[in-house]
Write a structure and sequence with these properties.
single chain, 166 residues, mainly alpha, 5 helices
């Protein structure tokens, strides 16, 4: 029983550390969101508005996870379900011909992939800061506990890094 509690606490702390790092990399910040709305008539204003809402929600989710010591897995799982429900509720406010459900599902899918992209980029950044190299000096690249089937900002491996959606 004690070992299970220790293992649960370790998982809880690992989840929080990863969540904090990735949430901050994705734009979560402490403090109140900025006042006022940008002009929503054009795509730039709508993009700014959506980024602000995303960061505000992520900041709240991170604060709740930080406060949920010992229950972080449940907190993050609950947040994902609640925000998905909120997204569906908001998308349901517009008529079906607006096809907002498709855009909402695409955003959900992109959001689901973002932590992996951020974690991969963070691992690559960390490896480069600590002198890690994938090249053995003979033009051969070696896999060091990760796979090269993802974008990890190493253009010297794969040509130019593909553009990412944010």
């Amino acid at each position: 029983m004690c070992g299970e509690l220790d293992e649960g606490a370790a998982i809880d702390e690992e989840l929080l550390a990863r969540f904090q790092l990735l949430a901050k990399r994705a734009g979560a910040a402490a403090g109140a969101p900025p006042a006022g709305l940008p002009d929503l008539d054009g795509p730039e204003g709508r993009g700014l508005y959506m980024d602000g809402l995303f960061k505000a929600g992520l900041t709240r989710a991170l604060a709740d996870a930080e406060a949920a010591e010992g229950q972080r897995v449940d907190a993050v799982a609950s947040q994902a379900i609640a925000f998905a429900r909120l997204a569906g509720f908001l998308a349901g406010q517009l008529p079906p011909e607006a096809d907002l459900l498709r855009a909402t599902i695409e955003a959900l899918t992109d959001g689901y992939a973002t932590p992996r992209r951020l974690a991969d980029a963070e691992r690559a950044r960390h490896a480069h800061e600590h002198g890690h190299s994938h090249d053995d000096g003979h033009g051969h690249h070696h896999d060091h506990d990760h796979h090269h089937d993802h974008d990890h900002d190493h253009p010297h491996h794969h040509g130019a890094a593909p553009a990412r959606r944010t």
